[in-house]
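Cross-posting from the chemistry board since nobody answered there.

I work mostly on the small-molecule side, so proteins are not my area. We synthesized pyridoxal-5'-phosphate and want a rough idea of how it might sit in this target. Sequence and SMILES are below. Is it possible to get a predicted 3D structure of the two together?
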Amino acid sequence: MRLEELLKQETKPLLSIYFSAGFPQIDSLPVLLESLESAGADMVEIGIPYSDPISDGPTIQHSNSIALENGISLELIFQQLESSSTTIPKIMMGYFNSILQFGVEAFCERCSETGITGIILPDLPLEIYQKKYQKTFEKHQLSFILLITPETSEERIRLIDNHSTSFIYAVSSAGTTGTKKGIQGAKKYLQKIQSLNLKTPVMVGFNISRPEDFKFASKYTRGGIIGSAFIKHIENSNHLSQDTHQFIKYIKS
Amino acid sequence: MNKEKTSNHIDNEGFYGEFGGAFIPEMLHPNIEELKSSYINIIEAEEFQKEFKELLRNYVGRPTPIYHAKRLSEHYQTQIFLKREDLCHTGAHKINNALGQILLAQKLNKTRIIAETGAGQHGVATATACALMGMKCVVYMGAVDVERQAPNVARMKMLGAEVIPVESGSKTLKDATNEAIRDWITNPRDTHYIIGSVVGPHPYPDLVARLQSVISEEIMSQMPEEPSHIIACVGGGSNAIGAFYHFLDKEQVELIGVEAAGKGIHSNETAATLTLGNTGVLHASMTTLLQTKDGQVIEPHSISAGLDYPGIGPQHAHLHQNKRVKYVSATDDEAVKAAFLLTQKEGIIPALESAHAFAYLEQQKWKSTDRVLINLSGRGDKDLSTYTKYNPY
Ligand SMILES: Cc1ncc(COP(=O)(O)O)c(C=O)c1O
């Protein structure tokens, strides 16, 4: 299913799970896609491991370096995606340099061939994207997902809203991924977002690790994105499928 | 200033030709916008210039002298002059930038300062500026560098800075910079990040270049007869840009940047970015960097912690592309030999970084009429343990 359809069709809170490709094992990606789909996650964000992930905290830094040691590469990720018959909406998240070296056009082409419908590149700001890459992304019907933070001005949130095609990724607090516990401190910020009546649905990410965090995020927005907590949960897993089901059940409890 | 002239010119988004820009995560947008919209007005204001120049004169000890190195000149059968940045307070050119940026941070009402450091010279300079201004200071330093630059760690601590060893990646300058960026993302309101070189997102490369340009401004007035060559070592490239700045449009002056070749260009243990790298994004800037074909950043190697960096300032990438500056490299061995030679001939122990600039003297035939200016970016006290272990003779 395409991302836009999911966001339009479903009214229940949406749960998105982020994980690094190539982690914990080099070939974990297809297993994780299947398990997440059957366990009832609504979408997945596939992290492209990078040597210098500046907006990530220790957990994702670690999963990145394990995945790179395992020998993962963007080409291999695409091959693994080709072998997967899952239909869960898929987004890719990575750092711009990986895409630049792969070739932006080639990357977009491979994404649309392998069922990726959205891209998050935290270090490619809106302005540079518009000027240089928007045409290519649009040609391949890829949604470019933009971030907002508690520091983002209302004016800029509206600008980002105008340029968003699937959802806006609201970062729950100033900081890197997975470094704080809980998002209850973000209440005012989430209320503000809610009151802006944006045209684009909003999903909340960073520091969601427990059922109460997911519920809290869903109260104000379309849902929550979980990364570090899931990665920690499967770090030493010998039964990926089982552990994934257990995690999704817990978060939805 | 020189803004309109081609070599120092950046466009509105901070690009020097195809290099530069601000590839920042949205979390840093407000900080970078604030800096971008205010830095020129602040640093060119009369009040700022007055404070800055007074600190440079009475606190740093500027202008630093130009010394005619007669015995070294005789050795190479040419005329060699040294710009003595090693005589700056704290022992390197880094203090010029740290003081300029701390004044800027005060004007922006910031109360907490963070910095990354490789050799520790920028960390010491920042810790010094913070002690002087009574501001809180946190310095990120790769765990490997904490070990090989121990005297500077002790200095930073005595100056009241918190030094945080960084254990990720190669545990050197690149990783310290990542960690400083993460800190800034986490503390966007009260904190100013004093980057130590002409690297990072726009407007840092231009900001740091302007603050370091005092070096070439002084050279112009101190050398009535223009140098024929200016040689500087290049890590991120701040002492080199500082020394080149006002000469970039004087085509008759040959400008040479010396990178660290580590154990050799083909050894896989090197930091010769411009020789071996290609275009990519590092530390939020489009520049030249050492990377795999997948775009993973390659861990560099240099005996000198301050040159042990897989990228380079975007302006250097541009000056390399348009061939205004000639970029060469020197190995660990060549640098250490050059340091010993300078010490024996002139009684000056250079920083390991600066020693790379002197190593280039061996690589070219000089004319007796050449007037070769070397930017002696720092002194070697911090490197004594490396020098004694590594004595090549
Ligand atoms: C004495 C000295 N020279 C040069 C450098 C390299 O930095 P840059 O290339 O920015 O001048 C350093 C960095 O630590 C240094 O301490």
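Reply from a structural biologist on the board:
Welcome over. Reading the output above for you: The domain at 3-251 of chain A is CATH 3.20.20.70 (TIM Barrel). Chain A has twelve helices and nine strands. Happy to explain the token format if needed.
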